[in-house]
């Protein structure tokens, strides 16, 4: 009887470990990855009605691809994209035609926080952070950019997971 009890406990333990291993990749997924829809935007303290903007972030090898798209005649048109590691490595930012318009550095600074630095010729530099809410449903992007003639402009964008 005792021998059977040990086998039952081993079977339960094996099932529990198997279940944990089966769900481990889901828990280990990058919180930033997903499809996000812009819900609200505030620029220099002024809330404004944002135009429709979708941000898709997905794993691409050892990096993540970021694609910002807007609807044009009911078709999502990628207006800006880049593929970046989340370790602060510099990556090229490209426009809709694939032309380099700048560089970006993204660094994973906390469990659901990322620092961002964006630079480009003939455009203001911006630095800030992106944060995924604890429930994983909201992505908030805050940045500061030095705009010629306006000074430092603070921008907050809030995206909802789709």
What's the topology here?
Elements: H1 2-28, E1 34-43, E2 46-48, E3 54-60, E4 63-72, E5 75-84, E6 87-95, E7 100-110, E8 113-120, E9 123-132, E10 138-147, E11 151-161
Antiparallel strand pairs: 1-2, 1-3, 1-11, 3-4, 4-5, 5-6, 6-7, 7-8, 8-9, 9-10, 10-11
Number of helices: 1
Order of helices and strands: HEEEEEEEEEEE
Going across the major beta sheet, what is the strand order?
1-3-4-5-6-7-8-9-10-11
Q: What overall geometry do the principal axes of the alpha carbons give?
A: globular
The CATH class of the largest domain turns out to be: Mainly Beta
Quaternary state of this entry equals single chain
Biggest pleated-sheet summary = 10 strands, antiparallel, barrel
C-alpha termini separation: 53 Å
Helix percent reads 10-25%
The name CATH uses for the topology of the largest domain is Lipocalin
Describe the structure.
With 162 residues, the chain is an alpha+beta fold. The protein folds into two domains: 1-29; 31-161, Calycin beta-barrel core domain (Lipocalin). 17% of the residues lie in helices and 61% in strands. A ten-stranded antiparallel β-barrel has the order 1-3-4-5-6-7-8-9-10-11. It starts with a helix and ends with a strand.
